[in-house]
Amino acid sequence: MNITSLLSPNFTQGRRTYRPEAIVIHIMDGTLKGTDSWFLSPLSQVSAHYGVGKSGEVHQYVEEIDTAWHAGRIHDPTWPLIKKTSDGQYINPNYYTIGIEHEGNEMSEWTDTMYATSAELIRKMCQRWSIPADRLHIIGHHEIYSLKNCPGFKVDLDKLIALVNGSTQAVNGQISKTEKFGKVTTLTRLNLRAGPGKVYKITNMVNAGIQLAYDGFTMQGETVNGNGKWYYTEEGNWFWSGGVK
């Protein structure tokens, strides 16, 4: 993954006694270029660790070992893991989270490329810091600060987390496919999907014992029971190879 370093002056060195324990997903409410300028200005007094563009660009503004200023305000938090002191005061979430901004606004649909790039970035963070890749540890900014609709109405965090955990859609937004025609028979009732993974919507359902024709396959689909091979059909549907013979 290519990451462009554009280090912001807006950060706190170190993390006091804390370490990254969760990842906060943000929306930029603007462009990647505009966010670069805003985070590089000392007047803004804000930053995040990373920014992800619609075309898959990744910019780093703050080192992960340092504290970015992305989620310090707290209002009616719904995040169960938010920390408090012994006397009930909130501890600044910036100390124990990593912030990732994404290009667009609260009504923007995320591109497949942005989903895939963000998932790859998050996967590496989770590995580096032993952060569980689940909904408790990958959260929206609004779960800390409820007055903002951040990361917006269109982002699907469950899809993002599924990509982190198994779906290996390529970073450029394309799926590597091998063209090979053939036929298989379903072993059990099988879902046809819009893409090679359970994160994609179901387009149809086929009963056991039905013959399906396919136009090719990918080995880069979501891994199910150790098997990431998915077939695709002429109509654009996908089905898992483990459900057929």
CATH architecture of the largest domain: 3-Layer(aba) Sandwich
Q: Alpha-carbon distance between the termini?
A: 37 Å
- What order do the strands of the largest sheet run in, or round the barrel if closed? 1-5-4-7-3-8
| CATH third-tier fold name of the largest domain | Lysozyme-like
Helicity level: 10-25%
Oligomer: single chain
Poorly predicted runs are 168-173
Class from helix and strand fractions: alpha/beta
Number of strands: 14
CATH top level class name of the largest domain: Alpha Beta
The tally of helices reads 3
Tell me the overall shape.
elongated
Please name the fourth-level CATH homologous superfamily of the largest domain: Peptidoglycan recognition protein-like
How would you summarize this macromolecular structure in one to three sentences?
The chain has helices at residues 32-40, 112-129, 157-165, and strands at residues 4-5, 11-12, 22-25, 50-52, 58-60, 67-68, 97-102, 138-140, 178-185, 190-193, 202-206, 211-218, 230-232, 238-240.
